[in-house]
Write a structure and sequence with these properties.
Length: 328
């Protein structure tokens, strides 16, 4: 439907005269065509199963989620996913939003929840590692948190929970533009973003639920903490640690050796602070064994593990519960 724009008449005095009335132009609505429903991704069959008016019909964008939830097949998959993952947000619409990638829907999607979930996951992981290993250097702490929360890891967690079977996405249009920003457009990337979004949705509902999810699915993974320590200058750094602790300056002593005059000698060196042996190491030369002994001593120092700790958020959640009880 088209409208003719009324022309403005010019008065003899060169002043503009505005017509007495201008036809009302209705505000255009944004629609999505049923032909543009995703043809790939986990939801393709569920979308096809949803009833549509006709192949060329155009429907308001807000009705897309209604179509999703009107599909018995998809709702059944969603119920199975909730039972498998233990994620319950209170209503299916919120869950669908967390599972909807921007490639599937430009307006209501999981971008904001994904951002919140990523920050929340890193917060809870940082809190745990920072509190449990109080002597870790900052660069090691940062590297460990990244190892726990990187996109590849979240994609694998999402796959284990069954996220790819219920997430909504399509590899066309804006998806290609989005892929240029975040790497190759593939199921793993979308699964990671959806998993972040689920954490964000849990955090929005109840931060304690988000923390439980992070501890159960992210922090439960085995990560070799020691490999994230950078101890190239161990021999020069160890005396500083000992002085800071008020202990005697470290000294290296040869504990045992074998084949000194052969082509394959082995030396075992211990590093001592006073009478206390704080580390030991072996090598094909005295200098190599001495370096490894100093590195072993530093590793023991930085890797001090408190194991069971009270996290800062523990008290915060207790206070919130107490406040809730008082309000009742």
């Amino acid at each position: 439907m088209s409208f003719r724009t009324p022309t403005l008449a010019r008065h003899s005095s060169s002043r503009l005269r505005i017509p007495p009335s201008i036809p009302h132009v209705p505000t255009p609505q944004i629609y999505v065509s049923q032909q543009n429903l995703p043809t790939r991704g986990a939801y393709a069959t569920a979308a096809a199963a949803a009833q549509v008016e006709s192949p060329g019909s155009r429907r308001p964008l807000g009705s897309v989620v209604e179509d999703v939830l009107s599909s018995k097949d998809y709702v059944a998959k969603l119920s199975a996913f909730k039972a498998r993952s233990g994620i319950e947000l209170g209503n299916d619409a919120s869950l669908v939003e967390a599972l909807t990638h921007v490639s599937y829907r430009q307006t209501t999607n999981n971008q904001r929840l994904s951002y919140l979930g990523e920050k929340g996951a890193k917060l809870f992981v940082t809190e745990q590692i920072f509190t449990r290993y109080p002597k870790l250097p900052a660069d090691a702490l940062e590297s460990i948190v990244k190892s726990y929360t990187e996109r590849r890891v979240l994609g694998n967690i999402g796959k284990a929970l069954g996220v790819p079977g219920v997430m909504l996405w399509q590899n066309s249009g804006s998806a290609k533009q989005d892929s240029q920003k975040e790497g190759a457009m593939n199921e793993g990337v979308i699964s990671a973003k959806a998993t972040y979004a689920l954490i964000g949705a849990l955090y929005q509902k109840a931060p304690l639920e988000a923390r439980k999810f992070v501890h159960a699915h992210i922090l439960s993974r085995d990560v070799d903490i020691e490999t994230h320590l950078k101890l190239q200058g161990a021999k020069s750094f160890l005396p500083l640690i000992m002085r800071e602790q008020g202990k005697p300056r470290p000294a290296s002593r040869l504990i045992r050796e074998s084949g000194r005059l052969s082509t394959s000698p082995v030396f075992l060196v211990g590093v001592y602070s006073g009478a206390e042996k704080i580390g030991e190491g072996y090598g094909s030369s005295l200098s190599e064994a001495e370096f490894r002994a100093a590195k072993n001593a530093l590793t023991k120092h930085f890797m001090m593990d408190l194991k069971k700790v009270e996290l800062p958020s523990d008290q915060e959640f207790v206070d919130d519960i107490d406040d809730g009880l008082q309000l009742q």
